[in-house]
Amino acid sequence: MQAKPSPDPKSSMWAWMAHDLRFHRAQRGLTGDAVAEILNCARSSISRLENAEAKLDDRQAAALDRTWRTGGHFSIQLWDAQLGHDPNWHQQHLDIEARSSVIKVFEALVVPGLLQTPEYAHAVIATSGVSNVDRLVEERMSRQAILTRDGPPVLWVMITESVLDWPIGGPAVMRSQLARLLEASELLNVGIRVVPRSAGAHFGVDGSFKIMSGPSGDVAYTESPGGGRLVPSAEEVRSYLLRYDRIGQQALPEDQSRELIERVMEMMK
Fold first, then answer.
1. Which helix (H) or strand (E) holds 130?
2. Domain limits for position 68
3. Do 150 and 71 fall into the same domain?
4. Residue 8 within a domain
5. Mean pLDDT to the nearest integer, 55-66
6. Which residues 6+ apart lie within 8 Å of 224 measured at CB?
7. Rounded to an integer, what distance in angstroms lies between the CA atom of residue 163 and that of residue 94?
8. Which end of the chain is more exposed for a tag (fewer CB within 10 A), N or C?
């Protein structure tokens, strides 16, 4: 079977890394099996890395630099790639989410996409000014199937009290959305906690994020206008895990969070 052509190294830093991995392997006359031994991974992973369908991690980049004596070439590329915006962030985010066994989310402004109703999602997405709102809403709803599939991921959600009483879409849409949160909180694999307004300043004021854990380890994700950022660096992901735990110290227990959601729902006339 003929190998796929290398991705265009000008398209992104990640594509350049994939291109360079294949180039350096070919220059040394090595097989994929030989590189898999260096990286301590399956042979199939090498094809995915060279096609930019998977990404080198810190340990793998260091192993290549050490074995091939590159002077830190791959580690520096990886560092630079992790700082920048990846044009393929959206699909990569969805792929990682679908494979995750544990998903931890902190949302300061809106209900997380995995728990949104169609009407709420439509109101949120429409504000971005995109033309394909209905298609994006449908895509978001289809993502939610992972919560009720066989072997669903554990979803731990923390939201601020502001998420509950900010009337996105109007009172009727919000009442339906809050009811959806209560319904989801009854699932054995879903936990929802609220950071009350009385907590004041907390470790979540810097913004929303999520941490996805699966077969390839932990990946953090942050979103901003115009794009998102995936964070595969183990050291940086640990900082997000610590931040999640620190936010959790200010959040209400699950039963009190449900009571607060019910009270807000009753006031949403």
1. none
2. 13-83
3. no
4. no
5. 91
6. none
7. 23
8. N
pLDDT tens for 165-181 read 999 999 999 999 999 99
- Structurally, how many domains does the chain consist of? 2
Amino acid code (one letter) for 136: L
CA–CA dist 74, 62 (Å, integer):
7
Residue 98, token pair as written in the block: 């679908």
Q: How many CA atoms lie within 13 A of 47 on its CB side?
A: 7
CA dist 233 and 221 (Å) reads: 11
pTM for this prediction: 0.72
Please count the residues of the chain: 269
Residue 4 included in any domain = no
Cα separation, 7 vs 51, in Å, equals 6
Strands of the sheet with 227-231, listed across from one edge:
190-195, 154-160, 102-107, 209-214, 217-224, 227-231
Same domain for 56 and 100, yes or no, is no
Structure tokens at 158: 């923390």
Domain presence at residue 5 = no
